[in-house]
Amino acid sequence: MKSPITLLSIAILLSGCSNNSESLSSPDGDLELSFTLTSQGEPSYSAKYKGKPIVNPSLMGFEMKDGENLTDGFHIDSISQSVINEIWAPVWGENDSIVNNCRQMTVYLSRGSIKMDIEFRVFDDGFGFRYIFPEQATKHFTITDEKTQIAMTGDHMAWWIPGDYDTQEYEYTCSRLSEIRSHADDGFMSNVSQYRFSPTGVQTALMLKTDDGLYLNLHEAALVDFPAMHLDLNDSTMVFKSHLTPGPDGTMATFDTPFKTPWRTVTVGENATDILASDLTLNLNDPCALDDVSWIHPTKYMGVWWEMITGVSSWNYTDAENFDLATFDYSKAQPNGRHGANNEKVRRYIDFAAANGFDQLLVEGWNIGWEDWFGKEKDYVFDFITPYPDFDIKALNEYEHSKGIKLMMHHETSAAVDNYDRHMDRAYDLMNKYGYDAVKSGYVGNIIPRGEHHYSQKQVRHYLNAVKKAAEKHIMVNAHEAVRPTGLCRTYPNLIGNESAMGQEFREMSPKHVTILPFTRLKGGPMDFTPGIFKMDIASFAPDSQNKRATIANQLALYVTMYSPLQMAADMPEHYTAYRDAFQFIKDVPVDWKKSIYLDAEPGEYIVAARLDKNSDDWYIGGVTNDEARDYTLAFDFLPAGKKYMATIYSDASDADCFDNPEKYKISEMQVNSDTSTTIHMARGGGFAISLTPEVE
To answer: How far apart are CA 408 and CA 531, in angstroms?
Structure first.
């Protein structure tokens, strides 16, 4: 599918190899990247922003198995430079058009018979580079280590999570870079899996702030057929080195030429909002690979899910002991009475979702095998096609279609990816048969076969293959526990969501978590965070569960501050019925946008964002804060001049508090225009949400 809005100009300059250095500036001239080949033939780069270093000289290259190490001894054959200037239209997104304007440089290197090119792209808000191995005499490469460095210029503040190969489900720590090791020594990382690679390793996207107030973000883009990159820090030199997730034999990656690695990226901004607004990651991904995208659509959904998360009901149909799926007869089993995915309950959820304008209903625990899963680490648990006796898949699909909505499929793979691969075609075919067009896949647990990791090359390949195969069958994918996103939703827009971070089901997470995720995890793509929890006193209906640390106004704001084209109203129908006036915002807020503006932000403290509906002239605003209450003065100067709007404001009550009084809010209205400003109270763990409807003149 080609973008309907395109302006592309390319100018190519070929230079000789007499000089061992070359520079490349951003279109506005503020950012300058320099490439140097040292006297030992080592590739190196550095970067300055407005004349001040942001990345000190950093070495590049790879260590190879049973062969030459691609770190030195290189010769520059030639260098080419070009300009990319285009506007492209995403299938869905924060904006209906995106400017891709950068300057590009490719350095063509050789080391004997080995050829390795390095491609740089420099934007106004950052840069990226990747390694290109053209077709050559050496066909096969095995990488044992990537030596790419990102040398910091100081002991920056960092918002980070530890370098775990298998999960991102951590709260973020804010510390100096030099303090990462001390947090490890204090036992912070004691819950990192046994496969952790380093007590000074962190995951990307990594958010940084320099002492002179510059914001940096380190990540990767277009992760295809390669292991995910973590960052090891030398805390005496402040130099990061890339660290790839290994395979079972300890090697990092294998590939045949021609081959391109993912991009290594550095985003820069003078304000925190510059990082939030950056499209650098998306722009470094290839254009949409699908010819037909008419079937892809942003989706607002509900689910038979939260009641399982809180322990009200179960995924299991029976509590049978000594369970063996191969011999178990469900027709003779005694139901446990707590199974959530039963016909009666699903119909009730369908009725509520349809009556309130939702598109789909997720149902987890519909298929046999849940009794044989958790903690057993078996290759074969689920077949993804056989429902429990109390889930009539045909009748329920007919019922929900009659109501004008669809069911959303759930595939928990139990991290047995080979088993999922074996069953994927039949599972997707079942979805086509019954009209499902979206699947939530899960990869909970240690990857089977053992020795593989969630972020290894094999698994990265699997996740994308699942998306490609889904696209062939017109299915949208929302993958949980998969590798963190790197902008591939541009190329495959049916990748409509991911989890890949600590989400809402972790009820006791710090309120600051939602003020950090947009700076980190969401820089690679949208997150299925599952907002919209209204009943925070969870222990009142699920005695063994933990209470939620947020206010209702905070939960409303997340629909604006945490972008996703796939948004869930995660709570149960009865809780929305109890707060129907606040629920109105969830019903109204869109999931696809014409324009997005980040009005104000500071990582770990607060975020305020405004978005214009793609299908109307309505604006929506959301603001969230950490565990500090604040009174925020909101200016409406982003609105078109001379136009009046009616603002409906959902805010924390004066006595609201995420710890002591989380369900208190107030709703007010006022007329506003571009000259209006107002002060809004945000409680601890609170926020505000606003809908703006233009008044008819």
So the answer is: 17
Distance CA 686, CA 556 (A): 10
What are the DSSP calls for 97-133, one per residue? -EEEEEEEEEEEEEETTEEEEEEEEEETTEEEEEEEE
Mean pLDDT of the chain: 94
Fold of 299-500: TIM Barrel (3.20.20)
pLDDT of 284-315, one tens digit each? 999 999 999 999 999 999 999 999 999 999 99
Amino acid code (one letter) for 90: P
Q: Are 226 and 253 in contact (CB under 8 A)?
A: yes
Between CA 102 and CA 281, with CA 50 as vertex, the angle to 5 degrees is 35
Point out the residues that are catalytic: 505
User: Where are the domains positioned within the chain?
Assistant: 13-283, 299-500, 502-527+561-567+590-697
Bin 659: left if φ > 0, else alpha if -120 < ψ < 50, else beta. Answer: alpha
| Alpha carbon separation from 381 to 376, 389, 412 (Å, rounded) | 9, 17, 10
Contact between 551 and 685 under an 8 Å Cβ cutoff? The reply is: yes
138-155 average pLDDT score: 97
β strands within 514-605, DSSP E:
566-568, 593-602
Q: Are 536 and 448 in contact (CB under 8 A)?
A: no
d(CA 116, CA 341): 54
Mean of pLDDT values over 156-167: 95
Domain 13-283 CATH assignment equals 2.70.98.10: yes
pLDDT given at position 189: 54
Class of domain 502-527+561-567+590-697: mainly beta
Cβ pair 631, 682 in contact under 8 A? yes
Collapsed DSSP state (helix, strand, coil) of residue 497? strand
- The answer to whether residue 437 scores a pLDDT higher than 90 is yes
Q: Which H or E run contains 428?
A: helix 417-434
Q: Write the pLDDT tens digit of every residue in 51-109.
A: 999 999 999 999 999 777 999 999 999 999 999 999 999 999 999 999 999 999 999 99
Q: Residue 8 above 90 pLDDT?
A: no
Q: At what angle do helices 343-355 and 393-402 cross, to 10 degrees?
A: 20
- Identify the CA nearest to 72 among candidates 19, 28, 112: 112
CA distance 545 to 500: 23
